[in-house]
Structures are given as structure tokens and as C-alpha cells.
Amino acid sequence: MPKWIWGLIAGLVLLGAGGAAAWWFLAGSKPLLVQTATVRANGQGPSADVVLQATGYVTARRSATVSAQITGTLTEVLIDEGFRVKKGQVLARLDDSGLKASLAAAEAQARSAEAAVAQQRAQLLQAQSDARRQNDLLAQGMTTRQAQEQTATAVVAHAAQLEAALRQAEAAQAQVKLARVSFDYTTVRAPFDGVVTARAAQVGEIISPLSAGGGFTRTGVGTIVDMDSLEVGVDVNEAYIAQVKPDMPCEAVLDAYPDWKIPAHVVTVIPSADRGKATVKVRVALDQKDERVVPDMGVRVSFLASKGKQPQAAPLPGVLLPPEALVQRDGGNAVFVVADGRAEQRAVKLGPDVGKFRLVTEGLKAGDSVVLSPPADLKQGSNIVSKD
Question: For residue 168, what are the CA distances in angstroms to 115, 180, 356?
């Protein structure tokens, strides 16, 4: 075989090896897309006199699913999510044709009863006039006592008939009121001022105050929440519940607005514990009302020592780490810290839980950016890019 062919083969082998090495280098250096979070010191953000912290949710003390008091077909729905409504405002209307006819019939019956009363009253007046004339004639000896007694009896009879007609008229008026109340039930109104958070029915659907089953009947038009009644419900570990007192000052921080501290205070400690979670529910009132606060938002509450008193407990030293950042590496707890676009694996030492966070006493410092839910192929020195 000519020498030049051997040289060509050797060149091709070297070129292939170089390409494979380049592919391996580029593939290995391709950055991983990860989500990161910045850790903060325990007690950072709230006041320095924090007794303890707990997590919970924003709840509404005044919330109602509005429904009709009768079963009927919706002809109008005048609300949608986000609408602000006033007490007594019309939210929806049901088909009222049948009840309108019933009301008209009741009103006609009432008018007929009133006419009967007028007729009986006129007859009573006539009977009374006849009785007076018979009394005068009897005194002059121009009539018999029997005729005079008959006219007196007629007065009593017509008075009784008038009384019966009056009672019938009252019954007819009661039927009118009943028909009018039933007719008014076709209009669904807001029970209080609030904001519509859910619209549950559409025009043409049947609505009923009772569930008919089968999913074809709606039990409500929508849900209204009184935003002025919003408060926070948190679960406090029963080991620390003795530190929480009514009217105790607090600071609330919404998960959606981590830099916004809302002054608050304890309303009450609910006298019931959750045996499964070993927690006690605490109601916390927000001292500031704001449109950014909406029901079911996650919130972290810091309970503060009362003014003029020493804190009952101080925040433990360390940083607060989201639990999803923890991984097991080399038989211990570790996290990956972002350093100059690369992952740096660090062993950490954990303390007790602080709300929904893990307290890290060694291995991290406030301000470090850690990788959340690290992928299995993430290792020391890996190139990473944050999603944020």
C-alpha cells in the first residue's frame, strides 16, 4: 500500500479524535438551567425583638357563597370575578314569569275581597237604617214588634258578614305579601359590601338553595368576600404556644411581597390543637388594609415581644434555607452555592426548623445564592444559569 494512503488514514484518525475531544469539552461545559434563591439571616427583616415565627395563610372572616332562596332558572348574572359590590346590590335574576302571575292572581283576589267588604258595609248601613225606622214606627204603633225584631236581626247578621269579609280581606292581603316575598326571591342581592372572588353559575342554568345531585343544579351564583375582614391564621408549634398572648404585636410578611412588613397583632389563640401536626391555630389581625392582600396568600408572621418587656426568646444564629435546596452528598447535608456562574458544593450543619425554612448554622452566610431542587447531574464546578 502506498505511504501516502497510510498518512491519510493517520490524519483522519487524528481529526476524529480531535472532534470527539471538542464535542466532549463543549457538551461538558454546557450550562445547566437552575432556579436559585438568596438566603437571609434568621431574624433578618422583622424587628429585633422577635419572640418566634410561624407561617400560615390569609383568611376571610366574612365570606359567603350567595344563592337564591328558591329553585329557578337564571335569566341574568350581573357579576364577575373582581367586581366590587355593595350591600343590597342585584347580583342575578331568576325566571319570574310564574311567580309574577301568582302575584297578580293574589292581588286580584285581594281586590275582590276588598269589594266584598265594601258591599257588606253598605248592606250593614242599610240594615241599620231599616232598624231605626222600624223602631220609630213601633213607638208610634204603626208596625208590629215582629217586623222590628227582624230588622234588628238583619243588622246583627250583616255585621257578622262584614266581619267575615274583613277577615277574608286580611287573608287575601297576606297572600299578596307571601306572593310578593316569593317574587322578590327571584332577585339575588349582595348580603354585604365585598369583592366577588368566584362566579359559579351562568345564564340558563338552574340554581337551587339545595343540591339536587347529578351536577346539573347550581347551589350558588358566586362567592363574595369582605376584604375588610381579612386576617391571618397561623399554626404555632405547641411547644412555643405559651409565648403567644392576645394583643401581642406582630409583623406579617407576605410570600408575594417579601420586603413589605405589615404591622399586626394577635386576636386570639384558638383553644384546640392539631394532634397530627402538634400545632395550635392563632388568629392574627392585620393593622393595615391594602388591596394587595388577598385570601389564601401565604404569610410569615413574626411575634414580637411586648413593648417595655424583654424578649422571651431570641432568634437562633444562622441563615434560613428553603428545604428544597438541601441534597445528600457524601453521606451528609449539602447545598450548591452559585459562585461566578458555577456550582460550589458546600456541606452544611442544620439547626431546628424555623417555620417553613431549615435553619443552617454552619456552611452558609446571609446573601448566598443557593440552587433550588438541584438536578442529579449537578456537581462541583458545573456551569449554571439561573432561571430568574
Answer: 11, 18, 71
Question: Which amino acid is present at 99?
Answer: L
**Residues in the chain where the model's pLDDT stays below 50:** 20-28, 45-48, 308-313
55 forms bridges with which residues in the sheet?
300
Residue-wise pLDDT tens digits, 175-188: 999 999 999 999 99
Q: How far apart are CA 287 and CA 252, in angstroms?
A: 10
Do 55 and 235 meet the contact criterion of CB atoms below 8 Å apart? yes
AA letter at 357: F
Q: Which of 343, 337, 341, 339 is nearest to 370 (CA)?
A: 337
Q: Judging by DSSP bridges, how do beta strands 357-362 and 187-189 pair with one another?
A: unpaired
H/E stretch holding 64:
strand 63-66
C-alpha dist (Å) from residue 154 to 114, 132, 283: 22, 12, 76
**Helix 145-184 with 97-139: angle, nearest 10 deg:** 160
Please write down the HEC assignment for all residues of 335-383. EEEEECCEEEEEECEEEEEECCEEEEEECCCCCCEEEECCCCCCCCCCE
How many DSSP H helices and E strands does the chain contain? 3, 25
| Confidence (pTM) | 0.56
Q: What's the confidence (pLDDT) of residue 282?
A: 95
Cα–Cα distance measured from residue 170 to residue 178, given in angstroms and rounded to the nearest whole number: 12
Contact 92, 65 (CB under 8 A): no
Q: Using alpha carbons, select from 376, 300, 370, 378 the residue that is nearest to residue 339.
A: 370
Phi, psi at residue 100, to the nearest 5°? -65, -40
- Tell me the sheet residues that pair with 222: 66, 199
